Amino acid sequence: MATVTKKIGGAYRNKIGDFIYAKYRNKLVVRSKPTSVRNPRTLGQISQRNRLSAMSSLAQAMSAAIIAGYKKATMGSKYSPRNLFVKDNFALSTAGGDGTATINYSGVKVSRGPVAKVTAMTPEFDNPNEVAFDVSYDNLVALGVSRSNLNLKVVIYCPELDITFIHTEEGTSNRVEITTPTTWSGQRVYVYTFVVYGGNPMVDLGYDTGDVSESSYVGSGNIS
């Protein structure tokens, strides 16, 4: 049996038996059909692809937080906020013996910048649909930073739902209490914080023009 396919521009491609005929630069070219197609997906390659896929999925779920935490750090660089996030966190994505990838969420960095970190206490999940914790700005105050010029960003990630919740708190408060969506009840979440110093909020673009701190991992727990 022969298969003849007409392409745009009048060129033909013919398949007859174990040979393929094609017109190339006004010449008839004949080549044999490949007897098999090799699959280069070794376990190592599968693992690498799955690790990258897992981190890319996390970057998608945290996209708004990444813009807020990485935009200032990537200005004038070759990286986008998403690319720098993946670069910073790729080592946290590991693959098991079957190539399945998992992420160590406790090590995830959601911001990059020169401002000193805040000290956040262990999160509390005692009240229904609430995450609460105390925060200390002593590290920043010791450097002469005015708390009135600070905003605290709280990032809460739910892996099961693959959704991120972002909350902004003024730096004048030492207590953070956040109400999460009711659909998160019973879900495991991971909490991160970083601060933005000075600047102006670019609401439409999703970030502040001020300087940003490195993020801190606050902890994890189940929403009541």
SSE layout:
Layout lengths: L1 E5 L5 E5 L2 E6 L2 E6 L10 H19 L1 H12 L6 H9 L3 E3 L5 E3 L15 E2 L9 E7 L1 H4 L8 E9 L4 E8 L4 E5 L8 E10 L3 E2 L4 E2 L2 E2 L3 E7 L2
Antiparallel strand pairs: 1-2, 2-3, 3-4, 5-6, 7-8, 8-11, 9-10, 9-12, 12-15, 12-16, 13-14
Helix pairs in contact: 1-3, 2-3
What does this 3D model show about the protein?
A hairpin with a 2-residue loop joins strand 3 (19-24) and strand 4. The protein folds into 2 domains: 2-32, no CATH class; 43-222, Immunoglobulin-like (Sandwich). The chain has helices at residues 43-61, 63-74, 81-89, 138-141; strands at residues 2-6, 12-16, 19-24, 27-32, 93-95, 101-103, 119-120, 130-136, 150-158, 163-170, 175-179, 188-197, 201-202, 207-208, 211-212, 216-222. The chain is elongated and about 80 Å long. The chain has 224 residues and is of the alpha+beta class. Strands 9, 10, 12, 15 and 16 form a 5-stranded antiparallel sheet that branches. A 4-stranded antiparallel sheet has the order 1-2-3-4, with no helix packed on it. It has a 3-stranded antiparallel sheet with strand order 7-8-11, with no helix packed on it.
